[in-house]
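Need Proteasome subunit beta's 3D structure for a figure. Predict it.
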Amino acid sequence: MYRESSVEDRRDWEPPIYRPEVGSLPEMEEKDAEKVNQTGTTTVGITTTDGVVIATDMRASLGGRFVSNKNVQKVEQIHPTAALTLVGSVGGAQSFIRNLRAEVDLYEARRGEQMSMQALSTLAGNFARGGPFFAINPILGGVDDEGHHVYSIDPAGGVMADDYTVTGSGLTVAYGTLEREYEDGLSNEEAKSVAASAVKAAVERDTGSGNGVFLAEVTEEGVDINGHKDFSEVL
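Structure prediction for Proteasome subunit beta:
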């Protein structure tokens, strides 16, 4: 039998409202992180009288326990006179570099001039802070009209300029060597030996670093990158 609803019934009744649920990104657990290809890494950046020298090791590993690749180039040119290192997850670092290259090309196309190192470092910091790049801590080294620059970029987007810097899992060992051997007024050739020495020291103790050294020279003329399996070639 039909019964007309009362005012009280209508007041208490609420229509079924289907609101969109806000999702969340999956959390990466420790066991998942171990499956990610990581560079482990020791990377060194030094300003010189000629420009900038960057040195990196060559090893990629799975969770720092298994060597997945012995010939990884962990420094890439991203600007006519700048290079960036890969530190952290390989996929995140590669994506980071692709995005920076695209922005550098767009800047030059729109403005008809090259991006300054100050602008490039700020952009890199903004990307690191706001982008989907997992566990990166690169070094940016470059040359522009203002001089020769080295920046370390932390995963939270912090950008710090210095005469020399080290990032990666072997930084504590590399820094000791760098503090001992670095001095003002190094040429590129001298800085290559110092940077390679710092990487070699880290390779001896850090399981995430190894298998040789890549050296990048950055000058106002461009970027030159070469790999060396034998440290004696550059020491």
